[in-house]
Amino acid sequence: MLHIYPSKGARQPVILKGNAEGLCALLNALISAIAHPNSSGVAEVFNGDAEVYEVVVHLVTTHEKLSPIPDQNSQQ
Question: Prior bond to 37 cis, omega within 30?
Fold first, then answer.
């Protein structure tokens, strides 16, 4: 189980809450993105309502590649 809460405003933190399994899935996605820079790291996680969603992690090497925000319906 993993919850990712967006920032509520400027200079406010993004909050990650999860059990060990959810946090490990996120950690594996981060490691996968670093180890395989030509592909994305993906974690399939559940929220408290048992809804499944994906966390997609991309490794970028320049500030220009950080923007624009990617389309949420396509995995670039």
Answer: no
